[in-house]
């Protein structure tokens, strides 16, 4: 099946006072209609930048982009601001971690839902209001016709998140990009919002890109998974495959530092030693080599000298052999 969104060899660089940041360095992925791609990685791994680029929300003056982004047959890297604006209104919508990035405190929730709909769809005020109330109802806001006239500060944190999702759904987007959408919420509300997103996906058939640092959330939300490190994809596969038998040392680190589902309470977490590399001056070869515990098991290649590539389909960008990738996890990582 042809992917709804196809990204090929994407490179994103931006200039800062300190030099050029290589935020994304040769990234390829596909998202199919109606499916969820999870993108996981630590902060600074390039996962948010990737999606701002897809939406054309990067700063065009300071950012340089190479590669291909094809959304529903349309090439985006060369698209004009006007074309992108149209796309953002009609095909793609974004849900942020902080609803106040999307919702202004100065206007009522209803007005903020209606106006883009009038603009992008040529709807009348009355039609837009009816649609907004319908969407507020869908995301579980009680008494939506009354709440239509409220300001964002009159909503609780969870309700604001729901209102932002309603806003994202107004134009029936084919692709929803959710960037850490529940990180700021308490666990119960988080679970409710995630369930809501899954239900809405069923109903609307949207593709979702779900960005998070939380593998537990991904396990529950995504079909496919891309693990990012230092602006590159280091592992890819179905969520099932990657979580059951991860093949990249960085993914092993992420899994070991995650509280085990149903595990003993008080079990100590093993964080990945070291910190994410600077993207001003990324490490040579494999970007993970300064933090990797398995470099001495690699033969016939140099972790600091040669950059491992990520093959097609289920793959991990690492110089370990296929057999090592499978057995090290089972023998050394899993039985903590
Ligand atoms: Fe570790 Fe080398 Fe594999 Fe990179 S290529 S993850 S440094 S073993
Ligand atoms: Mg981020």
From TrEMBL:
One family from Pfam that matches here is: oligo_HPY
Which GO CC annotations does the UniProt entry carry? plasma membrane
Could you tell me which residue ranges the ABC transporter domain spans? 7-255
Q: Which InterPro entries does the UniProt record give?
A: AAA+_ATPase, ABC_Ni/Peptide_Import, ABC_transporter-like_ATP-bd, ABC_transporter-like_CS, Oligopep_ABC_C, P-loop_NTPase
- Any one GO MF annotation of this record: ATP binding
* UniProt cross-references to Gene3D superfamilies, sorted A to Z: P-loop containing nucleotide triphosphate hydrolases
Protein's cellular compartments: Cell membrane
Q: SUPFAM superfamilies from the xrefs?
A: P-loop containing nucleoside triphosphate hydrolases (SSF52540)
Q: Any idea which UniProt keywords this protein has?
A: ATP-binding, Cell membrane, Membrane, Nucleotide-binding, Transport
Cited CDD domains: ABC_NikE_OppD_transporters
Q: Which GO terms describe its biological process?
A: peptide transport
Topology in membrane: Peripheral membrane protein
Tell me which NCBIfam families the record gives: oligo_HPY (TIGR01727)
Q: Record's family?
A: Belongs to the ABC transporter superfamily.
What's this protein's name? Peptide/nickel transport system ATP-binding protein
